[in-house]
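Quick one, tokens below. Sequence please?
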């Protein structure tokens, strides 16, 4: 490796990208974006990773992974694992370009024609939710996540302010510009009373076939998660996501005892160890990790192979705070593994797609990473340099009495 650069850009939202150049002039890109903590990853990469990579063999992907993971002594954690992920992706990108093959071919080749994708519908009231679901169907989506406002509460995370008026679903932007997070209000009982009425209406309107998903954003206790899972069973959800914080993996036993609802967990996890109990006890159905936050293609492939022994599938995290490079990496991996389940997908904004030139496609509800050698994404320096880093944070959540809460 001749150079390891860290590129920061904000074409509407912040992205951290690693670009590795080899002595032969080949370049590879990796995504290290950690929403709201971007500068910590950029420093980790610039100050501690780039200097020790220069001069190393770019073809030695597994060895480089172990060198960064074991060599740091301090293991795991989102900053470390996003940094390793970005280097890993860039090395797979280079290997593909050198071989003249798309990365999915290096991972074993296509195991399906394309990746079933789901998008985010949301709204304040049922008619707006219907409109938002319809917009997705018109776009070709064959699976839709449904999020709703809650009567009595103000702005709720996951419900796009623009989407609430029936338009602007591409404006999904969880991090809000500013130097401090905004605060939202939360009431779990009000949410639990309201949510089944929304799914009853959506299922009634769109019929039994459309896969519907929902994200609980870690807001419930295991008992509450079991109750909401049970009350949603009649509406046949594809999955209920992050029903409870899962740092305590064993708490999912309680949820499983209470409901047969398919469960997806893991977007804030960053290593195979976060999944050990969840996978071996079959306490979840879908692995939600992002390639970007879980040590890259090399590590997430290991998690998925482990999960395959327990009939657990992928549902990789893919909001717009994963850059197009991270999205492409997820698509190559998803296309190649046997236990693919579904891929979260939202189109990035036009300014973002001017910085990151993608070659993946979305047609008839299916994503495909394309056949360009490597990951298939190019970085436009001129467009990237036009937008500097600017602070933006996810909101925080408080209960109505002011207590800090998960979201
Ligand atoms: C999802 C997520 C996102 C995250 C966001 C945090 O399911 O897509 O929950 O909305 O909250 O990516 O940065
Ligand atoms: Mg989520």
């Amino acid at each position: 490796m001749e150079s390891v650069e860290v590129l920061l850009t904000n074409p509407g939202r912040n992205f951290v990208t690693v670009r590795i150049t080899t002595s032969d002039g080949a370049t590879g890109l990796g995504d290290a974006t950690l929403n709201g903590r971007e500068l910590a990853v950029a420093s980790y990469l610039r100050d501690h990773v780039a200097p020790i990579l220069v001069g190393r063999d770019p073809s030695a992907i597994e060895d480089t992974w172990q060198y960064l993971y074991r060599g740091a002594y301090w293991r795991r954690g989102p900053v470390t694992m996003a940094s390793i992920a970005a280097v890993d992706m860039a090395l797979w990108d280079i290997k593909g370009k050198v071989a003249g093959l798309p990365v999915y071919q290096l991972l074993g080749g296509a195991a399906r024609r394309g990746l079933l994708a789901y998008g985010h519908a949301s709204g304040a009231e049922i008619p707006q939710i219907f409109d938002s679901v319809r917009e997705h169907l018109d776009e070709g989506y064959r699976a839709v996540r449904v999020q709703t406002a809650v009567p009595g509460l103000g702005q709720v995370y996951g419900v796009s302010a623009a989407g609430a008026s029936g338009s602007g679903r591409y404006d999904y932007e969880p991090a809000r510009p500013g130097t401090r997070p905004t605060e939202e209000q939360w009431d779990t009982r009000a949410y639990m009373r309201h949510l089944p009425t929304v799914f009853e209406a959506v299922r009634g309107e769109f019929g039994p076939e459309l896969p519907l998903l929902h994200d609980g954003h870690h807001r419930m206790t295991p008992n509450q998660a079991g109750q909401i899972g049970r009350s949603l069973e009649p509406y046949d959800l594809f999955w209920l996501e992050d029903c409870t914080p899962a740092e305590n993996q064993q708490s999912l036993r309680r949820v499983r005892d209470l409901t047969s609802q398919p469960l997806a967990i893991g977007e804030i996890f960053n290593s195979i160890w976060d999944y050990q109990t969840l996978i071996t006890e079959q306490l979840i159905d879908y692995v939600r990790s992002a390639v970007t936050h879980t040590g890259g293609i090399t590590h997430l492939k290991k998690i998925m192979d482990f999960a395959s022994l327990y009939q657990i599938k992928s549902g990789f995290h893919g909001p717009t705070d994963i850059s197009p490079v991270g999205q492409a990496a997820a698509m190559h991996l998803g296309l190649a593994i046997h236990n693919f389940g579904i891929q979260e997908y939202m189109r990035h904004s036009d300014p973002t797609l001017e910085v990151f030139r993608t070659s993946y496609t979305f047609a008839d509800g299916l994503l495909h990473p394309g056949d360009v050698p490597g990951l298939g994404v190019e970085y436009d320096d001129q467009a990237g340099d036009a937008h500097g880093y600017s602070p933006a944070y996810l909101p925080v959540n408080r209960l109505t009495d002011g207590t800090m809460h998960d979201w």
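The CA atoms of residues 183 and 396 lie 5 Å apart. The pocket of magnesium ion (ligand 2) is lined by residues 215, 241-242, 267 (CB under 6 Å).
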